[in-house]
Design goal:
Mean pLDDT: 85
Shape: elongated
Strand content: under 5%
Helix content: over 70%
Oligomer: single chain
Number of domains: 5
Number of strands: 2
Structural class: mainly alpha
CATH topology of the largest domain: Tetracycline Repressor, domain 2
Largest sheet: 2 strands, antiparallel
Strand order of the largest sheet: 1-2
Low-confidence stretches: 368-380, 526-542
Number of helices: 30
């Protein structure tokens, strides 16, 4: 009994009560066994019937195989009998050959008779097709296949006669020549027709005549295959085994006909003719060719996108056409370059070369869009993406840079000469430029506000010329597509720009010397203070002028009027140009080059910043020196008896020293504010304050120590003899009259600068100076003038009537130590007041 049956019995009989079910279970098992037996018997019967049927089919197949084997034997026997038992086999073979020869001769007779008639008919039909094609590009040449077929039959016949007449006598060869000679004219006519179709391929496709393209392709492909077949037979030596008596001369080919070569030759001939026509049209100015090559690019684009997909990929027509045009363009360009063209022409060639390189690169489809055939061969060769070649391109680039730099230097030298003349002669007022400026100020609550102001600023004549020159040259260089040229142009322009700055610095020095040779007021200080040690500036003019006895016209010949106006115009010019260079030119040209060149371009523009800043600093310094020079007559009275007495004369008709000073400064600055930029005016005024206040203090010390002034008496009690009262009077006049010339934000600098004079009163009259002065130094002076020179305090101490050198020598080291400690513990202000930074006196 199987395990399955035992498992089922164990499932049915689990308890003792289930024993009573055994008869029932037995009957159930008997029924199931009967059902299984029936199914098994039926299945077995089906399998036995199938096996018997297959055995019957196998027996039938064996019988048929034996029959086939027997029949093959009979066929072999019949073949052997048919060959071995034929009588006079050689005779029959010879008779067959004679019959074939007679048939061939009869065919030749008939075809020769009608040969000229056939050719005449072909000539007429070819002429008709050619005329229709020339008259309409939409004509599809529907008869060209039949014409080609009949011409091929005629050519095959001609080849047959020519090949087998080589073994005949000269007379027979002459006869054959007369028979075949007319076909040369027919072949030429057909090639004219086919050639016209080939050179018209582009135009017919534009008109939608693609059927003509397919017919041309079909004919050339057929001829190429026949040429290939002929070449294979020739290489295998099968041509010599052809029998003239039996060969079918309708399929006879005596040589390769090279219609594929004919296709490319005709195509190249037409392309060359088109390009040469363009060159001849612009023969009067060959450079115009590069401005008028849109047709070429349109042609190449059309070929790549429309014509090439209609032709077999193996023909690679788009590459062939591009190469033909490249060769023509390359040859033409080399002829132009070898003619030693000017720099502008070289630049145009380089510009078009860059454009051409990008254009032909764009003809190459993306790799993911290329077919397998296109992937095997690139449309454009890497070495043909430049019409002058990489090696020669580098030479041309170097030559162009040399030419353009020489030209730029020549232009810059001429410009410097013109600028020198314009600045020194000053025949007319400077030009006016509407300058948009953004100014920071403070409102009444001391909050920073931004003001946008449009003002008329003086600029030098043609002040835009240098930047226009840069734009002109750099734009041409950028259009060329060569970053190397653009960077080279900008770098050399920067060098020329700096040369002009240096030239202006020299001009300023020379013009200032001329001005001071006529208007120098230092003589007032020498006369009034009786000290020459105050002046360190030496007269650079060897020529001596009798100023006192010269007329105004004679003086103006030495130093032309308008120096301050031209100085302001010069400062404005370089400030405006510097802004334009950084805000406009730099970003523009950075976008036109690869990031590898960004550093060089930035450096070229940055190289102009420091010289420009130094030039503007010199401009401001010179304007300040001129203004301060005009203050010397009034400043010569500082701390003298007249200065003490000024408190008694403060009328409008009789201004005191301080009033004279603010009147002079006000006149200059009011005028300067009308034509200078805000930066020139603001920075200039700050420097003027520093210079004027230092001169005020220094001249005052010199007058006390070496001139007509008297030492400060801290104990003086008379109102108009008190040093402290005089200082307070001057500070009040200075601030009250100059405040209106400043913006609210800049007024803070005026107030802080004037403290340098205000502190003199306290330093010169304080009690117990050895104690008080160090305290003032630490808590007041250094907080206002972080980098204040100790010479400032030493000077006022020397001018005190109650202090000797021993006390001063004791005080100065103490001040130095305090300043050192102050600097170590207190950070400098963001914008320190520099009035007393470099203060000195003799």
């Amino acid at each position: 009994m199987s395990d399955v049956a035992l498992s089922r019995i164990a499932h049915l009989i689990k308890v003792e009560d289930d024993l009573s079910k055994i008869p029932t279970i037995r009957q159930q098992f008997l029924k199931e066994k009967g059902s299984v037996d029936v199914k098994l018997s039926a299945t077995t019967t089906v399998q036995i019937d199938s096996i018997m049927a297959n055995m019957s089919k196998l027996n039938a197949a064996a019988v048929k195989l034996n029959s086939i084997k027997s029949n093959i034997g009979k066929v072999n026997q019949i073949y052997d009998d048919s060959v071995a038992s034929i009588k006079d086999y050689d005779t029959i073979r010879k008779m067959t050959a004679v019959n074939q020869f007679l048939t061939q001769v009869d065919n030749l007779r008939r075809d020769i008779k009608h040969y000229r008639e056939l050719l005449t008919s072909l000539d007429s039909r070819i002429d008709n097709e050619l005329e229709k094609l020339q008259n309409s590009l939409t004509y599809t040449l529907p008869n060209i296949f039949l014409i080609h077929y009949e011409l091929t039959q005629a050519r095959n016949f001609s080849d047959y006669l020519e090949v087998y007449s080589r073994s005949l006598s000269d007379d027979f060869r002459s006869i054959v020549f007369k028979i075949t000679d007319p076909i040369k004219r027919t072949i030429a006519k057909f090639e004219d027709l086919l050639g016209e179709a080939i050179i018209s391929l582009t135009e017919v496709v534009k008109d939608g005549n693609v059927q003509l393209v397919f017919r041309v392709v079909k004919i050339i492909e057929y001829e190429s295959k026949e040429d290939l077949k002929f070449s294979l037979m020739e290489s295998l030596g099968l041509l010599q085994t052809r029998d003239a008596k039996t060969v079918d001369y309708a399929d006879f080919r005596g040589k390769r006909r090279n219609y594929k070569k004919f296709f490319y030759e005709k195509l190249e001939e037409n392309l060359s003719e088109t390009f040469n026509a363009c060159i001849n049209h612009f023969s009067h100015d060959k450079m115009l060719v590069y401005d008028n090559l849109e047709w070429l690019e349109d042609e190449l684009m059309f070929v790549a996108q429309r014509l090439n997909p209609l032709l077999p990929a193996s023909w690679d027509v788009d590459s062939f056409i591009q190469n033909v045009y490249y060769n023509k363009l390359h040859k033409f360009t080399m002829e132009v370059i070898n003619s030693d063209p000017p720099a502008e022409d070289l630049m145009k060639i380089l510009s078009y070369d860059s454009h051409y390189s990008k254009f032909v690169a764009a003809l190459q489809p993306p790799e993911e869009d290329q077919s397998s055939a296109a992937k095997r061969k690139s449309i454009v060769k890497a070495d043909q993406r430049s019409i002058i070649g990489e090696d020669l391109k580098n030479v041309v680039l170097e030559d162009y840079l040399k030419v353009i730099t020489l030209k730029m230097e020549e232009w810059n030298d001429n410009l410097m000469k013109q600028e020198t003349i314009a600045f020194t002669v000053r025949e007319s007022a400077p030009d006016v430029y509407n300058y948009h400026q953004v100014i920071e100020d403070e409102d009444a609550q001391d909050n920073v506000i931004t003001l946008e102001v449009d003002s008329d600023a003086f600029v030098l004549p043609d002040f835009k010329t240098p930047l226009a020159m840069l734009k002109e040259q750099a734009d041409v260089a950028a259009d060329s597509g060569y970053s190397k040229i653009l960077v080279g142009v900008i770098e050399h322009w920067s060098i020329c720009y700096i040369k002009r700055i240096i030239n202006y610095q020299q001009i300023i020095e020379e013009e200032f010397d001329k001005y001071m040779s006529v208007y120098n007021n230092e003589r007032f200080l020498i006369k009034e203070s009786k000290t020459q040690r105050l002046f360190r500036r030496r007269d650079r003019n060897d020529q001596q002028f009798d100023i006192e006895n010269m007329t105004t016209e004679e003086l103006e010949k030495i130093s032309k009027p308008g120096l301050i106006e031209y100085l302001a115009a010069l400062g404005n010019t370089y400030e405006i140009n510097t802004d334009r260079l950084q805000d406009k030119f730099l970003p523009t040209y950075l976008e036109k080059v690869h990031t590898n060149y960004h550093g060089r371009i930035k450096q070229a523009f940055e190289d102009t910043l420091t010289p420009s800043t130094e030039l503007n600093a010199q401009v401001i310094r010179t304007i300040v020196d001129i203004i301060v020079n005009d203050l010397y007559p009034a400043l010569s009275l500082v701390f003298t008896k007249s200065w003490y007495d000024d408190g008694q004369s403060q009328t409008k008709d009789d201004p005191n020293m301080a009033q004279q000073i603010v009147q002079t400064i006000g006149e200059y600055m009011e005028e300067l504010r009308g034509y200078a930029s805000y930066d020139i005016y603001s920075v200039g005024f700050n420097i003027l304050l520093d210079t004027f206040i230092q001169a005020y203090i220094r001249i005052g010390f010199e007058n006390i120590l070496h001139g007509s002034g008297k030492k400060i008496d801290p104990k003086a009690v008379k109102k108009f003899k008190s040093f402290n009262e005089g200082i307070g009077r001057d500070v009040t006049i200075f601030y009250g009259n100059l405040e209106g010339l400043f913006t609210r934000k800049d007024t803070a600098y005026l107030l802080n600068s004037l403290r340098a004079i205000e502190y003199l009163g306290d330093l010169g009259t304080c009690d117990d100076p050895l104690t008080t002065i160090p305290e003032m130094w630490e808590h007041e002076i250094l907080s206002s003038f972080y980098y204040c020179s100790v010479e400032y305090v030493r000077g006022v101490c020397l001018c005190r009537k109650d202090m000797d050198k021993t006390q001063i020598n004791q005080l100065i080291p103490q001040l130095i130590a305090i300043q050192k400690n102050y600097h170590a513990t207190v950070d400098p202000p963001i914008m320190p007041t520099g009035t007393l930074n470099d203060f000195y006196f003799n």
